[in-house]
Amino acid sequence: MERIEQGAGGLVLDDGRKWRVSPSMMAPIRRHQDRLRSARPEDLSEAGAATALADSLFNDMDELVRACDMKGRGHDVLHDWLMPHMGLLQRLERAADADTMAAVMAALDRSNDLFDRYFE
């Protein structure tokens, strides 16, 4: 199975601490993470299931963007996580086989772990 990575890129801590994210921004992120945790690979094999999941995940990220109230360096660091994460969602939406879907889902899990490592 292909291994898809999202590197830490420009992700840095805020003087050794996690960046603070407002509750209005955390709500769609936590919902997004919950959707990914509850998605079972066998459910994604049904026609259109991966696309439907990707659409709901994109909706969560759209809500995050609308709620964004971060400024300065924290905002920039969040974008360093968000842009590659969105790329993974695009790959999930286009995934044509179970192996690719599984690899992308694993990469999304790792991406969410990165978020939790740098943001609170």
Rg (C-alpha, Å): 14 Å
Give start-end ranges of low-pLDDT stretches: none
Number of DSSP-assigned strands = 0
Structural class: mainly alpha
Number of helices: 4
State mean pLDDT (0 to 100 scale): 88
Main sheet summary: none
**Which range best describes the helical content: under 10%, 10-25%, 25-40%, 40-55%, 55-70% or over 70%?**
55-70%
Provide the domain count. 1
Structural notes for this entry:
This protein is mostly helical. It has one domain. The protein contains four helices and no strands. The chain has helices at residues 23-38, 49-67, 72-94, 98-118. It is elongated and about 45 Å long. The N and C termini lie far apart (32 Å).
